[in-house]
Input
Amino acid sequence: KRLGANLMVGEEPQLTITSGTIFAAELPASGEWCLISCTVGQGFDFDDFSFGDPEALLRVFPEHCKLIERLSRR
Output
């Protein structure tokens, strides 16, 4: 998905990420800034929240190793 205001090229002004989805964000090479926020709804519990484990993701999705490495905090 790509965030942005240009709907003609498939950008979206906001995204809804469903429960159980791992997500990350990055700026395009030409980007200078962005505002990223995460809002949760009623029923959210931090006990059900976790950050993605890069090592586990690499084992399950080895074909995406470059993307996982690029978007992971280490």
Remarks:
- The CA atoms of residues 5 and 13 lie 5 Å apart.
- The chain has two helices and no strands.
